[in-house]
């Protein structure tokens, strides 16, 4: 019987695999997933090989207690580290590689006055923002982590540390939460935050206000509720700590 020779994975293939892993809900990492089938076809591999590689990346996520397969290679680890050390560059590179592989043209509707280097910067920013949104929503199975709402058009990939405050971590998925539009706004304005044990904390200022109580209840009813945790990319405690200390409105930081 002839021994089957395994085809080594290349850096480019692994970048594409991580890209798809980041955007695929855990329950859809299997050989029947059309996107996995399509990538396998493009790479000249079997859907089983691609789905196994995607599942295997879970073993490299330090935030997960539930690990995937543990047969990652040295190159798997190196490319994974590349992503986590430079999400800005790797997100863009992997998205462009995926588009090229599929023969897709990346286009955005831009102001005609935006040209040259500025246009390139804007396009890159939008591509990366789209990638971040797909990562966060898929990690939370397209569900608001506070309310359980699953209407995609009303879900936001919220940054824990704001986009403008930490350039290096803008696209780090551990700096993201999946929230509905109302709670995203409340989180952004410091009316709610998340505790160390992943429970919803409500600003005392909101509790004390007597305005529109029924509307306030849309937020205050979730006080102390534990958020729905993601299947991967658990929120980093240092980002949550930043939000509690610098954005959350407590009694000593009344900025209404």
Please give the alpha-carbon distance between the first and last residues: 76 Å
The residue fraction in helices comes out at 40-55%
Adjacency order of strands in the biggest sheet: 1-2
Biggest sheet overview? 2 strands, antiparallel
Tell me, what's the shape?
elongated
The SSE string, one letter per element, is HHHHHHEEHEEHHH
Total of helices = 10
Helices and strands: which structural class? mainly alpha
Domains counted in the coordinates: how many? Answer: 2
Q: Taking all residues together, what is the mean pLDDT?
A: 86
Q: Your description of this structure?
A:
The chain is mainly α. The chain folds into 2 domains: 11-106, no CATH class; 144-246, no CATH class. It contains 10 helices and 4 strands. The strands form 2 sheets. The protein has a two-stranded antiparallel ribbon. Strand 3 (192-194) and strand 4 form a beta hairpin. Helix 1 (11-23) packs across helix 4, helix 2 (34-43) crosses helix 3 (47-56) and helix 4 (74-85) crosses helix 5. The longest helix has 24 residues, at 116-139.
């Amino acid at each position: 019987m002839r021994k089957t020779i395994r085809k080594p994975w290349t850096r480019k293939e692994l970048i594409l695999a991580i890209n798809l892993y980041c955007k695929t809900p855990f329950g859809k990492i299997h050989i029947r997933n059309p996107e996995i089938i399509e990538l396998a076809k493009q790479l000249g591999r079997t859907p089983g090989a691609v789905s196994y590689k995607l599942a295997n990346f879970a073993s490299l996520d330090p935030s997960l207690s539930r690990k995937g397969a543990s047969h990652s290679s040295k190159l798997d680890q190196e490319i994974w580290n590349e992503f986590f050390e430079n999400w800005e560059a790797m997100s863009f590179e992997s998205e462009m590689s995926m588009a090229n592989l599929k023969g897709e043209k990346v286009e955005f509707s831009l102001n005609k006055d935006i040209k040259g280097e500025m246009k390139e910067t804007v396009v890159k920013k939008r591509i990366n923002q789209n990638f971040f949104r797909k990562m966060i929503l898929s990690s939370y199975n397209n569900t608001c982590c506070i309310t359980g709402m699953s209407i995609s058009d009303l879900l936001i990939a919220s940054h824990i540390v704001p986009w403008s405050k930490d350039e290096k971590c803008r696209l780090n998925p551990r700096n993201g939460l999946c929230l509905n539009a109302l709670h995203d706004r409340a989180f952004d304005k410091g009316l709610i935050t998340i505790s160390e044990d992943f429970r919803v904390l409500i600003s005392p200022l909101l509790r004390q206000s007597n305005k529109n109580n029924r509307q306030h209840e849309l937020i205050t009813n979730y006080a102390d509720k534990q958020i729905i945790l993601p299947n991967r990319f658990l929120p980093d405690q240092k980002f949550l700590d930043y939000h509690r200390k610098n954005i959350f409105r407590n009694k000593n930081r009344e900025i209404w």
